[in-house]
Amino acid sequence: MNLSVTDTNTLALSAARARRNVIRMIAAGGSGHLGGAFSCLDMVTALYGRVLNIDPADVSNKDRDRFLLSAGHKALAQYSVLAVHNFFDESELDTYGSRGSHLPGHPDMHKLAGVEGNTGALGHGTAIATGMALAAKIDGRTYRVFTILGDGELPEGSNWEAFAAAAHHRLDNLVAVIDHNYFQISGSVAEVMNMHSIADKLRAFGWSVREIDGHDFDQIVAAFDDAPYEHGRPSAVVAHTIKGQGISSLAGRIESHYWQPSDAELADAVDEADALIGLLSERVAV
Amino acid sequence: MTRISRDPRKVFGAAVVAAADLDDQIVALSVDSGLSSGLGALRDKHPHRYLEFGIMEQAATGIASGLATAGKVPVLCAIAPFVTVRNYEMFRNDLGYMRQNVKIVGRNGGLNYSQLGPTHHSLEDFAITRMIPGVVVLAPQDCGEIEAAVTAMLNHVGPVYMRIGAGLIPDLFEDAPLVIGQGRLISAGSDVTVISTGQLTAGVIDAVQELEAQGISVEHIGLATVWPLDEQLILDSVRRTGRVVTVEEHYVYGGLGGAVAELLAAKHPAALAAIGVPHEFVSSGPYEEVLAHCGLDAASLIERIADFVRR
């Protein structure tokens, strides 16, 4: 089922505000992992805006859905969306980069409500998410667990241990999203370590797989709402995305991976983000 | 003295199963290791809480973390190096940094798998696990302490590493609750403080008896908790004896000897002989012969401690 125009515009506006939050954090801290944050940000927006059963006022509820960012360096995406949904006061965004901030360079579950694990070292999130999903099965709870991995993270063997374990234990309450933005710090993922076909590999490990455009809200929401795709199998979403999506000078460019903007670049990014927020606000108002 | 000997793995497994009978949050994770860790009865009695992963220590550690976020109390037991060295980053980040209530148990610790060689030895496990902030490191010295340590680690909220051995080991002490961080005074003396841990303590007790017969008065402290150290017990003793020997089935660096050296350097400088495994990949062979090669058999301990006191 496709989203209504209003729903799509609402998600797009929410994502635009989140991207503006990311730029605000980078302005405060001076630099950050922008590229991967922006490639997965529309999906994180959809999760918190439409999919996850989680209440910012009750983040420890045992029946809440879990979202764990395996690619912890994309923390800016999660922080920005959590701020949009009032998990914390947005003034905290301006602490990014400062000592003792609740928004460290990689997420810390003991510092910020809504963060479910301390990721950042790659190849950890799928296993932790598997444990969360397994606990639900043991206890007969119906929550779902979502995790987002980067495509550059896939050569870590520990992921494949966890993929095998989740399938073996029939964790159909687990959804792993591969943010396939095609670039990592040294170059294209196909050149650095070619893991293609990601979908075929996951299917061979016992997962049920969909491929989507990770910036198309219809496809994103459908992929998340429909999971599990097969009873008794974990679900994987291979999301084709654009690194740095949302800042036209950076989109699709490896230089977006870690962004340390000049004042002029920052001003341009703010202008672009604000213009989009203005445009989408008018559409949503209509 | 005739001592009753028991298998630490069976004692450990039975203690976990008894606890799991009373607490349905306890789950055991097996990496093709549960049955040989004495946990077969858990699989039989509570099959949904016996979770098998095959030979997969890295992900199993992360999965334990995820289970703990939902209130489970996971116990992961396997051959010691595979749940300490192999999965170290998961131990550090997913259990330590995330402060998860997970219990990692390394069995056949130290040189126990003497015939299988260095791949199966764990001679750095104390060193690397105590480096993770918030991790408790246990090395019970007999089977009664293993039972008490299982209770203590399950009651403790937070990550714990426990090392146990294998084979038949003698019962040394009356049964008593184990308090994490508290050592025991095994025998009082005045010439030297000898601190031992793990199942090597049995041999140290024998060595101390012989040293006493030779006229050397030994204060013997046994530590079922390697980390955090029982600083008060150690410092009170060293202030009286002025000399310290540590004995452990671990490299001489970084483990009990290293921890005691750090304590003494900071709070009460004193002569220290750290007795442990030399810093090498130890050749395989029969356990007693390997122990003697490392200078950890009773005869070597008597000689080394006596030399240290008399020099």
How would you characterize the overall build of this protein?
The complex is a heterodimer of chains A (286) and B (311). Chain A has 286 residues and is an alpha/beta fold. Chain A has 9 helices and 7 strands, in the order H-H-E-H-H-E-H-E-E-E-H-H-E-H-E-H. In chain A, strands 1-2-3-7-6 form a 5-stranded parallel sheet, with helices on both faces. In chain A, strands 4-5 form a two-stranded antiparallel ribbon. In chain A, helix 1 runs antiparallel to helix 9 (263-285) and helix 4 runs parallel beside helix 5. With 311 residues, chain B is α/β, with parallel strands linked by helices. In chain B, the strands form 3 sheets. A 7-stranded mixed sheet of chain B has the order 3-2-4-5-7-6-12, with helices on both faces. Chain B has a 5-stranded mixed sheet with strand order 9-11-10-13-14, with helices on both faces. Chain B has a two-stranded antiparallel ribbon with strand order 1-8. In chain B, strand 10, helix 7 (201-213) and strand 11 form a beta-alpha-beta unit. Chain B has helices at residues 8-22, 40-45, 57-69, 88-97, 125-130, 143-155, 201-213, 231-241, 256-267, 287-293, 298-310; strands spanning 5-6, 26-30, 50-52, 73-79, 103-107, 136-138, 160-163, 169-170, 184-187, 192-197, 218-223, 225-227, 243-251, 271-277. The longest helix of chain B has 15 residues, at 8-22. The model of chain B has no long low-confidence stretch (mean pLDDT 97). Chain A binds chain B through residues 62, 66, 108-110, 116-118, 120-121, 123-124, 126-136, 138-139, 157-158, 161-162, 164-165, 168-169, and chain B through 27, 48-49, 51, 53-54, 56, 58-72, 74, 89-90, 93-94, 97-99.
